[in-house]
Structure formats: C-alpha cells, structure tokens
Amino acid sequence: MERTITMNKTVIQTKDLCKTYIVEKQSNNVLQNVNLNVEEGEFVSIMGPSGSGKSTLLYTVSGMDRATAGEVIFDGENISGKNEKEMSHIRLTKMGFIFQQMYMMKKLCIMDNIVLPGYQAKLKSREKVNEEAEKLMRRLEIIDTAERQITEVSGGQLQRACLCRALINNPKVLFADEPTGALNSKASKEVMKELAEANKNGTTILMVTHSERVAAVSERIIYLVDGNIQGELVLGKLNDMQDLSVRERKLKNWLTDMNW
C-alpha cells in the first residue's frame, strides 16, 4: 500500500534527548542531548562505533525505551509522557519494526505471523488484512511460504516475512535495527531492495546499521559517537539499485573522515 507523503512534514523530532543507565551506582550517559529531525518519506540510517548509542536512540525514539530527559515528538505528538498502553497502541498502528533477530511466534505459520498485528490493530477487517498480507508476500516473492513454519524457510525468506509483518498496518515509520546483520550477501541485497521499495512507496525508515553497503541505500546518514551526533551525510534518494557502488564509495570516504 502506498502512503501519501506530506511535503516538509517532520514525523520524528527529538529535543535534547538523553538516556542514562545506572550500573553498579555508576552513571552511563548513552545519549547526550540528541537533537534529530526526520521528515516524512525520508530513509535515514544511524551509524557509529560500537557502544555509540545507535540502538538506544532507535528504541528511545520509538518509545520501546524511555528517555531520561528531553522530548520525542512522533507524528506531531509528544510521546515522552505516554504510558505503556498508549505507547503499545501507537507502536501497533503507526510504527513497524524489523530486527536482526527475526522474532516470530514459533507456533504460527508464516502467514499467521504476518497478519497477527493487523488483526490486533483492528484498523480494517480480517478479510482486508488477509488481502494486504497476500499482496505484500507476492511483492516480496514469498507467497509460496505462506503455510510453512518459521523453521522451514531460509533466513532471507524469514526476514522478508518480518518486513511484510512490519508493513501490514501501513506504518508511518518503519524502525530497522541491523535488519541484514544475520543474513548472507544475497539475502541482504534482497531485503535492502525491499526496504528501498517500501520507502519509495512512502514509508519513512529509520535504520541502524554498521554496513556501508546497507547504509548506502538510505538518503541520509547520521553519525553517532558517545551518544552525540557528530555529523551527517546526504546521499539523496536512491533511484536505481545499480547506483549503490558509487554511493558506497562516497559513504566510505566520508566515514574515513569521521574516523570510522
């Protein structure tokens, strides 16, 4: 399903976002006054050294983790003070998630895993949810896996199924945390192609990755060090997957300048 994009609308905004963990009475300031804007329809990647706060930023922006200080504005609404029930509803109806570990219910077949969030959201009838699931699975070329168990498909097929599940409610934003980290090169290319297609259809994407090739698909890269944004690179919209090598070289040169 394509989403209509409102031009120049900020869908994610953080204001002086901080996240501190207390470990053995010691403060660990993982995020420090992060100010980030993501416009509707953008594809933004977050990169940085291990321990820089990339995943923490993703989880805090999506409300999966709570900020210690600062604000998160999502789709025009301050979600910083939302309770867990309110956040669960927002995540279910306005957000989609895809992770390195492909979390799916073992007792459900592929199709049932995909349609479950659609049934839970109750945004449309079960018949419509089923139709959307079949449409997504055909587009991602995994319709033949519909009745299979999650142990009966390849890693690449399973991650594409996770992407179908993430898109079933036509989310405002898709959050991706190392979505290709557990995949081989071929499967990784397939998943990134589908993420690019989802973005082309209007889904805003915020992704954490350590891979230059994967990040080269995005239009903007944010570089995080010790919980602070140190810089950003604008690559622009990806028009053709064949252009990836040029974009990847530009990104690698920039990361070298950033002491990657």
Structural description of this entry:
- The chain is built from eight helices and ten strands.
- Strand 7, helix 6 and strand 8 (204-208) form a beta-alpha-beta unit.
- Helix 3 packs across helix 4 (126-139), helix 3 runs parallel beside helix 5 (155-167) and helix 5 runs parallel beside helix 6.
- The strands form two sheets. Strands 6-7-8-3-9-10 form a six-stranded mixed β-sheet, with helices on both faces. Strands 2-1-4-5 form a four-stranded antiparallel β-sheet, with helices on one face.
- The model has no long low-confidence stretch (mean pLDDT 93).
- It is of the alpha/beta class.
- The chain is globular and about 45 Å long.
Give helix % range.
25-40%
Number of helices: 8
Largest sheet: 6 strands, mixed
Mean pLDDT: 93
CATH-level-2 architecture: 3-Layer(aba) Sandwich
- CATH superfamily (homologous) name: P-loop containing nucleotide triphosphate hydrolases
Strand order of the largest sheet: 6-7-8-3-9-10
Would you identify the regions where 5 or more consecutive residues have pLDDT less than 50? Answer: none
Number of separate domains: 1
Q: In the CATH hierarchy, what is the class?
A: Alpha Beta
Query: How would you sum up the global shape?
Result: globular
Radius of gyration: 18 Å
The total of beta strands comes to 10
